[in-house]
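Protein in question quoted in full.
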Amino acid sequence: MTFDETNLVGNVYFAHFLHWQGHCRERFLADHAPRVVKALQGGELGLVTVSCTMDYFAECFALDVVDVQMTMRSSGSHRVEMNFRFCRDGMTVAAGRQTVACLGRDRQPPSPVPLPPELLRAAEMFPI
């Protein structure tokens, strides 16, 4: 992390952990579900965050190296749950959760659609 991710006191601003959840999720999709990314870019699929939480256990500061680990599972026909663990030097400094729903954006109004098979297969590689 960098100095621009810290607040006036010098510790990492809490909202950055939520931001990093998004980075991790997007990196996961790019690496393990590229057809899902194409469907998102093409406008036919939407991944909508319906809930998101964070628990903080220790402060982090500029230039700390924080590893983000994600596990996931399907939750019903059109939702996926992700758990995030943020570690510094082997210690968990924060943990978060996120639930995402798949929507068909090519429908009016956008409505739930089943999880793409590629996303289901990718989720099985990182089970909760």
